[in-house]
TrEMBL record:
SMART domains: HTH_LACI. The keyword Zinc-finger does not apply. The keyword DNA-binding applies. One of its GO terms (molecular function) is transcription cis-regulatory region binding. Transmembrane segments: none annotated. Residues 3-56 form the HTH lacI-type domain. It comes from Cellulomonas shaoxiangyii. Gene3D superfamilies: 3.40.50.2300, lambda repressor-like DNA-binding domains. PANTHER family: LACI-RELATED TRANSCRIPTIONAL REPRESSOR, TRANSCRIPTIONAL REGULATORY PROTEIN. Keywords: DNA-binding, Transcription, Transcription regulation. This is LacI family transcriptional regulator.
Length: 335
């Protein structure tokens, strides 16, 4: 005989109503929610989603919009979202917008009709477009901040500052920065970190032209970086950094003997040679945190709460992971 909600409630020592709220994102204490979900998992409880939707008026699903699932950064965020949503017995409908702001707006409009809430990861649309299409009560932004919309971001500015200060502590005084797509929110946060790290004039950071945040973008930027004569390079992300490593090796430039390289995100940092020093961003934790925030917002909206039930702008810390691609500068061979 299939396990029922009453079985779960009895085993967890709560009422059926409390068990239902714990399993559907309703208002219960975190300890009660975790205990009920653990019992439900142990007993193999699977609610009838269609029946639950008829009773609660909920779709019983979340939507996730990402710009590019082939980018390991966004794939990791999606993993975090999916794992936390699965714990709440909620499927996630995922849409990849191929970096197109127009497709993003269309996806939001479409998913709103069949989900209880939306997560927008690093959206490319303008602030105005997002405010126009997104419902503040049932939308959370990931790695993007727009006044008026709930969000979960990582402290990218501080991560970039840590990277520059690491290179400075090693003795580097001229660093090339390889930026990603212009006008992105994440890029602006990195710029803030660069400004903070260079404010006292103890280190110079020069920018090369922006590239696509991909392996090919790193290969493309490498010759300009090597021509500059700087002893270190800070890449927009790990994909760009691995592209730089590959091209540098082809040019006979040794990393880190001739050039120190720092990535960002800690996604593919151990897949190249040498392993990358990089800024670690908690992608999966960000995804899970965003789901938790979204479920609280949705529950508050359904309860007609006048004010959000919690802080709606969350910032997660970043930290530098030092590996084998950075070292003290030496006299570098001119390519």
């Amino acid at each position: 005989m299939p396990t029922t909600l009453q079985d779960v409630a009895r085993e967890a020592g709560v009422s059926a109503a409390t068990a239902s709220r714990a399993l559907t994102g309703g208002t219960v204490s975190p300890s009660t929610r975790d205990a009920v979900r653990a019992v439900a998992e142990r007993l193999g409880y699977r609610p009838n989603r269609a029946a639950r939707g008829l009773i609660t008026g909920r779709a019983g699903a979340l939507g996730l919009v990402v710009p590019d699932l082939t980018n390991p950064f966004f794939a990791d965020v999606a993993k975090g979202v999916a794992a936390r949503a699965r714990a709440a017995d909620l499927p996630v409908f995922v849409t990849d917008t191929d970096e197109e702001a127009g497709l993003e707006v269309e996806a939001v409009a479409s998913l709103r009709r069949g989900t209880d809430g939306l997560l927008l990861c690093s959206p490319r649309a303008s602030d105005a477009a997002l405010l126009d299409v997104a419902d503040r009560a049932t939308t959370v932004l990931l790695h993007r901040r727009v006044d008026g919309l709930p969000s979960v971001v990582a402290d990218l500015a501080d991560g970039t500052r840590q990277a520059v200060e690491h290179l400075r502590a090693l003795g580097h005084r001229r660093i090339v920065y390889v930026p990603g797509r212009p006008s992105s929110w994440a890029g602006a946060q990195r710029d803030l970190g660069l400004a903070a790290a260079t404010a006292d004039g103890g280190v110079e950071v020069v920018r090369c032209p922006a590239v696509a945040p991909t392996f090919a973008g790193g290969v493309q930027a490498a010759d300009l970086v090597l021509a500059d004569g700087a002893t270190a390079v800070l890449a927009y992300n790990d994909l760009v950094a691995v592209g730089l490593l590959t091209r540098a090796a082809a040019r006979g430039v040794r990393v880190p003997d001739d050039l120190s390289v720092v990535g960002h995100d800690d996604t593919v940092a151990t897949m190249g040679h040498p392993a990358l020093t990089t800024v670690a961003v908690p992608q999966r934790r960000a995804g899970a945190t965003a789901v938790d925030l979204l479920l609280r917002l949705v529950a508050a909206a359904r309860a007609s709460a006048a004010e959000p039930p919690c802080d709606t702008e969350l910032t997660l810390p970043t930290h530098l992971v030092v590996r084998a691609s950075t070292a003290e500068p030496a006299r570098r061979r001119r390519p």
